[in-house]
Amino acid sequence: MRVVLHREIPEDSNLQRQWNRLVLQMEQPEVFYNCEWGLAVQSAYRDRLKPLLLLAYDGDDLVGVASLATDSAEENVSFLAATTGDYCDFISDPSQRAEFVEAVLAELARRKTRSLVLANLPADSATPAALQAASGRHGFRVFLRPAYLCAQIELGSTAKRQELKAALTGKKKLRRYLRAMEREGPVTFVHLQSWAQIQAALPEFADAHVARFVATQRVSSLATAERRNFLEDLARRFSETGVVTLSILKVGDRPVAWNYGFQFCGSWFWYQPTFDSRQEENSPGHCLLSRIVIESCDMDGMKRIDLGLGAEGYKERFGNSTRQTLHATLSRSAGRHLRVAARYRIASVLKRSARVEAAVRNALTRLRLRKLDS
Q: Do the first three CATH levels of 2-146+327-352 and 156-302 match, i.e. the same topology?
């Protein structure tokens, strides 16, 4: 296996075809692994990300892609898509993953990389085991910890799909929300997939996202030009493929809920949703997600709705399965390795202690109330 290093992702249609063909060989292909995603990240964030692309070849055949980023000193490395992709991984056929990971770590060790931080790594990937097996041979100490538990809605068999569809359409809460919005105008749902349509709708979506975050005293990622440029470039690069899907719920002619998502290899991704705060009491986001699930039940080849990173309560209510992600830190320094492990374990203890403390406090409160009642 021969490894070739690039300082940026080339705009090369042949590489793009080979790269994306390799994505389809992954355990679970994800839109975040595609060449278009890497190119969009590189373009939008070039002022603060320094790409480091490692391509592995067997003869003339591309057999591995590691889309990474590094700091200016090239001592610390991460996934290029770490802050944009809900899942990140080394791309290869699973049967060649161990050999490819070995080759990547050997190359990084030769370049005196001090640390490798890999976020959003799927736990069901072959990569975590490959990292643990190969790291020591190249001077790295690896620490793996659980990261996000991503909620998913598995659609299942035809019978299960019909049950899910009937359960959602029959919910009184959903019908109540829709009726309330219908008093202001007809409620419609649209899914934009062409570049021209998405480009025209993105500014209003972005403004609504920013306003929603301001209303909850937070800062939206779409407050930055980088993020807006990234979503726009991503839609352009996937133009006419049907991958990028901007779903909109409208009341009359007015959009009140959006999801910038993806349809890729059997998954419909709930990636970046928002809604008009003026319609909050009618839960337009809930209505839009319900509609996506209902439509997916009738789509051949659609297997799941992936609700992505984040532990919002509504995701747990909708989801019927989960997918675990991991955070991997590989360090050449023993001290850094121990600090990373210690911080995680202390944080875990404090989290558990907080729950215990809350449970004890609640128990004492109930005991005092019982004494007062008696």
A: yes
